[in-house]
Design brief:
The complex is a heterodimer of chains A (192) and B (286).
Chain A lengths: L31 H22 L33 E6 L9 H8 L1 H10 L11 E5 L9 H7 L8 E5 L4 E5 L4 H12 L2
Parallel strand pairs in A: 1-2
Antiparallel strand pairs in A: 1-3, 3-4
Chain B lengths: L18 E2 L5 H4 L3 E2 L2 E2 L31 H11 L3 H5 L19 H16 L9 H8 L9 H10 L20 H7 L4 E6 L8 H13 L4 E5 L4 E12 L2 E7 L11 E4 L7 E8 L5
Helix pairs in contact in B: 4-5, 4-6
Classes of the chains: A alpha+beta (192), B alpha+beta (286).
Chain lengths: 192, 286
């Protein structure tokens, strides 16, 4: 049977209790124990600093020596001739060739040197000429590729001069006195 | 090729070398027939009234290599295989650069300097471009088959350059070749540094020989006129024929079928009447 006094539906009203406490951040929630521990910690730190200042702190033992700094090697120079792969430029003064020692003169054009350059240097834009040049210092480069224009524009301190570049690093300096030295220099940068 | 140690003063002439001396058949020197074609010369000795010594600066800045050094330098070149002859024999991406062919025309005087220009490019390791000596000769002589001397073509090479045979075909005397784009290409192959008038009358005959030897020992090719031969050729190497006897090896313009791959050694008492040393050319990739 239906209770005639029941006039509504839904949940019963919640019983009312005490009001909730306002939110306090964790840093502000201090219990008495927290306060005590903080005080102890402060005292211990103060004592420790005092001991250290007066040199009463027990020695921590031998301090391991600092690692010896490795002296820096020669800084690898950026590749003096742009482009991937080996490129070699030799610059000379055609009017002064007779002043060069005979060995250095022969080194400029020695077969061993040319064979090495032909084997190791990158292939040029025509698909067959290897990327090495032997130029008079006053050569007209208007029809030459930008690669060699850039290479020839680099400063030189003497003649004959050699520039070796392998795309990663390189060398610039006086042309070696013999063919064997010239070959060794290029081999150093040519890789396997 | 294995490196061979060369010393002393022995001959460096090889078995395949072609020697022009007093025993050589004149037919091989003066009117050779190659592939059925009689090869021409074309040297007209320089007229000093038309081409005075003052037209070129003398090679006053050349330091001549003393004769006492010749043997050592010749040995060094042979041992290192560093002469222009060696460079020519591998100058086309490892293959020999073919000799030029003046055909039956009297254009030797343009071919001698053009061959020298090709050698300078090879020594620089510039891409091999076969140059058209016919372009030079046709322009200078108004498309007529006329002789000349090497100084004429050297002047043209310095001022205008020489086009590739891709634009002015070899042996062509067709006026249709004479186009602006051809001369634009020629400008990429100019001679920029030279010593001319090696045979200028102010120098003695001995000095002329010494200058020629100096250039060849330094890998500087020379266009050389021999009036006695009536021919202009390109000298590319200073050779020791026997102890104390020296001679130039020349590169002719009568195809590779003449002499040894187009080359020969002139071991005759001919006088060098005119000579031009080409030291540098403009650099170009085509």
């Amino acid at each position: 049977m239906i209770d005639p006094t029941f006039v509504g539906g839904g949940p019963s009203p919640r019983p009312v209790g005490p009001a909730p406490r306002p939110y306090v951040p964790a840093s502000g929630r201090r219990t008495p124990w927290t306060t005590v521990l903080l005080l102890i910690n402060t005292v211990l730190v103060a004592v420790a600093l005092g001991w250290q200042t007066h040199d009463h702190w027990p020695s921590p033992g031998p301090v391991p020596p600092a690692p010896t700094p490795v002296p820096p090697g020669p800084t690898p120079i950026p590749p003096p001739i742009p482009g991937v792969g080996l490129r070699v430029l030799v610059v000379y003064e055609s009017g002064d060739l007779s002043r060069l020692p005979a060995g250095q003169m022969a080194a400029l054009y020695s077969k061993t040197f040319r064979d090495l350059l032909n084997a190791k240097c990158a292939v040029g834009p025509d698909g067959k000429t290897r990327e090495w040049r032997i130029f008079d210092a006053d050569v007209d480069l208007s029809g030459e590729s930008d690669t060699w224009k850039a290479a020839m524009s680099r400063p030189r301190k003497s003649l004959p001069w050699i520039v070796v570049s392998n795309g990663t690093t390189g060398h610039e300096g006086p042309f070696p006195a013999t063919a064997d030295e010239a070959v060794k220099l290029v081999e150093k940068y040519a890789g396997g | 090729m294995a490196k061979k140690k060369i010393s002393g003063t022995a001959s460096i002439v090889g078995r395949s070398d072609f020697i022009i001396d007093d025993r050589t058949d004149n037919g091989l020197i003066y009117c050779p027939v190659i592939d059925g074609q009689v090869k021409a010369h074309g040297l007209i000795p320089r007229s000093l009234s038309h081409y005075p010594p003052q037209m070129f600066a003398p090679p006053s800045d050349m330091q001549v290599i003393p004769r006492s050094e010749w043997d050592a330098r010749i040995n060094e070149q042979e041992e290192r295989q560093s002469s222009l002859e060696h460079i020519r024999m591998t100058g086309d991406a490892g293959k020999p650069i073919p000799s030029l062919d003046q055909d039956g025309k009297g254009y030797c005087w343009a071919h001698s300097t053009t061959s020298a220009t090709i050698l300078v490019r090879a020594a620089n390791n510039l891409p091999y471009v076969r140059l058209s000596a016919f372009a030079i000769a046709c322009k200078i002589k108004g498309f007529q088959d006329q002789g000349g001397w090497c100084g004429e073509s050297a002047k043209f090479l310095r001022e205008t350059g020489c086009p590739s045979v891709a634009l002015w075909p070899e042996k062509s005397m067709d006026r249709s070749n004479d186009r602006p784009e051809v001369w634009a290409n020629a400008a990429k192959h100019k001679v920029t540094e030279d010593w001319v008038d090696l045979a200028q009358p102010t120098y003695s005959a001995n000095l002329t020989v010494d200058q020629l030897a100096t250039c060849l020992l330094l890998n500087i090719p020379c266009a050389v006129d021999y009036d006695e031969w009536g021919h202009s050729i390109c000298a590319l190497r200073w050779m020791r024929v026997e102890a104390g006897v020296y001679a130039p090896k020349i590169w002719n313009s009568w195809t590779d079928q003449w002499g040894d791959h187009g080359m020969g050694i002139i071991n005759k008492r001919w006088t060098v009447d005119s000579a031009v040393a080409l030291r540098a050319t403009s650099a170009s990739i085509i």
